[in-house]
Structure formats: structure tokens, C-alpha cells
Amino acid sequence: MASPTHQNGDVPTNNKKPKLSFITDSEIQEEFSHHDPSVARINNGSFGCCPSSVISSQHQWQLLNLRQPDHFYVNHLKKSILHSRTIIKNLVNAQHLDEISIVDNASTATTIVLQQTAWSFHEARFNKGDVVVVLHYAYGAVKKSIEAYVARAGGKVIEVPLPFPVKSNDEIVREFRSALERGRSGGKRIRLAVIDHVTSMPSVVIPVKELVKICREEGVDQVFVDAAHAIGCIDVDMQEIGADFYTSNLHKWLFCPPSIAFLYTRRSSSKGSDLHHPVVSHEYGNGLASESAWIGNRDYSAQLVVPAVLDFVNRFEGGIEGIKKRNHDAVVEMGEMLAAAWGTHLGSPPEMCASMVMVGLPACLGISSDSDAMKLRTHLRDDFGVEVPIYFRPPRDGEVGLVVTGYARISHQVYNRVDDYYKFRDAVNQLVSDGFTCALLSK
Q1: pTM, full prediction
Q2: Residue 150: which residues within 8 A CB-CB, separation 6 or more?
Q3: Which residues, 6+ apart, have CB-to-CB distance to 204 below 8 Å?
Q4: Which percentage of the chain shows pLDDT scores above 70?
């Protein structure tokens, strides 16, 4: 389906002949020519990106709405959201369309799932002290949601400590099993496990299929996978993963404008019908997909450009699968280049990276706190035109001397060029050459 352009308000049919050649490098740069050319933008993981052709599609949807809102809501919105949901269903290999709801972002999806958990405590379906397990490196907003909904309702929260740097999936599996054992102590039930697919900071691909399987074997009631970074970045297959709930943003790695995410709810999950959108509107009680598709008058355009995004990714050789491989291979190569230049190391093996890699920064930079990491990030942005998140890892007991305590999370998306990473390399090399330490930023 093409973008809406006809003056009569109808959505036109795409009669263009299919392209016989793939997108060129110059066409990629043109699609992202609205990016600030003075900045090495190697932080796609935080906010994602959106190509010009998709922005144009979004703008046309917005105009279609503004031109005649009644016509838009009656004749276009519902069926167009349904079209987007169908594409997402196929992308993630869900069995049924009603398993896919479109929401604003992964934080909204998390609220939907944890809201249900809180009701189960309040309505005495769960006992006070029953357990929710979450990874220590869960996204900060997810931890806040667990605090707001689970802990406040009387649930006990068990965090899974994860090593970093990490060397293998076995380390993660071992810590996860140990956390489940702690959760079951005293006869408590583990009601929910919240598992990341790709952790944010530090960024590591979690062996999610294995952890879900362990949850099934160990009698965990439900599993929610927070996969904010996943779709467009790593393989996402609902049948293989087998979680009860799974969410991923489409505006991070799948080229949608902000903000759009999907929430998968396995039809066979006994609790699926209890899920409700936190914004209650006229569709309440008609199923989560319907509730999410109408939460009052708002801009739904980000949810309607999914067909245009599919057109964009199919301009690349191999489509989205080709893009994922391209980004993974490139970010590992750039990460290894930076680590070699600085005499450091990656935060995980290449197979535990997706389109983001953690790269150790020179120990002499003196990153000794989260505050130092944030100040260094700002310094790189303001003084060197490099946008990259910095992670602080406290020294472990027994570590002495110059220890790598700061890691940069670099991303690679199709618009990135090798010069972006050289610019970062040279900025850090200059800081080292100048005798810079983070202590100077506090003066």
C-alpha cells in the first residue's frame, strides 16, 4: 500500500513497477540527509532513525487526517492499523492476529503486563510475597514499573545478577537458575519472570529461548520478554521463543518514526484476556488489540507507516535479514577496531552482540562513577561531535591498577559510515594524548 496522496482522501494503490536493483549507498545517505552531518551518530540504540521516505508517508497520513478527520477515522484508521498489525504478525511469526497489539512503546507494553500482575495481588489471586524475577541489567524504566506495580502491591522482587564483561551464555544461565532457586525459597511462587532479549546498558544478547524453557521447567507462572531493541536488530520468532508476552519497539531498529511498539500476547496464555490498555476508552473490554487501537483522538500516524517501512527495508539485499547481518558484522568490526586502537576489549563475544557492541575505553580516562560516564558522554557530544552512550562498571573486588571501568555502547545502522567510528577513535586518542581524566570535568 502506498502512502495516502489522492486529494479525494482515498488511499491509492501502488502501481509502480518493482525495482530491479537494490538501494545504493548514495540513496541511503539521501534517505537520512536530515541527520546532523556534524555529528558521528553511533547511538541508534537510544532513539532509532527514520528514513525520509517513511517521514513523507507519515506526513501524508497526518494530512489525510487533518483534511477530513471524520472520513479518516471512519474509513481509514481501523483498517490501516489492522494492516500494520498483520505485517508485524508475519514479521515475528505469531500464530494469530489477535496476539498482536500496537502500543506507543515498550514502556507502555510493560505497564500493561505489570498492571495485570498488580491486579492479581490486589484481588488475592497472588499471595503477598510471591515473586517477580527480573534481570539486574533490566532497563531502568522497567525497574521503576516493577517498583510501581509489583512491589507496591506486595510482590517480592528478585534480581538476577549478571556478569560484565560476559564471556558466554552459560554465565547468564547459571545466574538465572540461581535466582529462580532463591525465588522459590520458603515455598513462594514465582509469578512472573521479566527477561530482556537485548539488554540496554550494558548491551548483551540474552539467551532468551533457553531462559524461557527453564522457566517452563521450573514452574514460573508467566514470562514477559522486554525486547525493546529486538525487531530489526535480531531474530524475533514468537513460536521459537515461547514467551507469554513479548514487546519490541519498531522505532529503534525498524525505521519507524516515534513512537510505535508491538505487544505479543500468546493466545494460549490463561491471563491474556485480563490485559488492558492503561488508557481506558470506548473499546475497553473488546480485547487488548482493539483497546490499543483507539485511545482517543491523537496522532496515530506512526502506527500507519509500517507498510512504507516494509517497502524501505525491501530495497536492501536480503530485506530485514540482510540489514541485520550487515549491521551486526559492521558493528563487531568497528568495535574490534576501536578496542585494538585503545588496547582494550569488547564487553562480550561477537555472538552475544546484535547491532550494538560494548567497547572498553582506556582506563587512564579515569571513569569512576555513573556521573563521570555521563559527563564524558556530554564532553564527547559538545566538544567532538560524537554521540555515544558511556557505561560505568565498578571495579570488582581484588582488581587493582589501571582497570577498564568505562565502556562505550556503539551502534551500527545502515546510515553509518566508517568515518563515524574513526571520529570517535580519534577523539578518545586525543583525550588520552592530552592527559585528560574525568576528574577535570568536575572542576
Answers
A1: 0.93
A2: 114, 117, 118, 121, 132, 157, 192
A3: 137, 162, 164, 166, 172, 198, 347, 348, 352, 353, 358
A4: 94
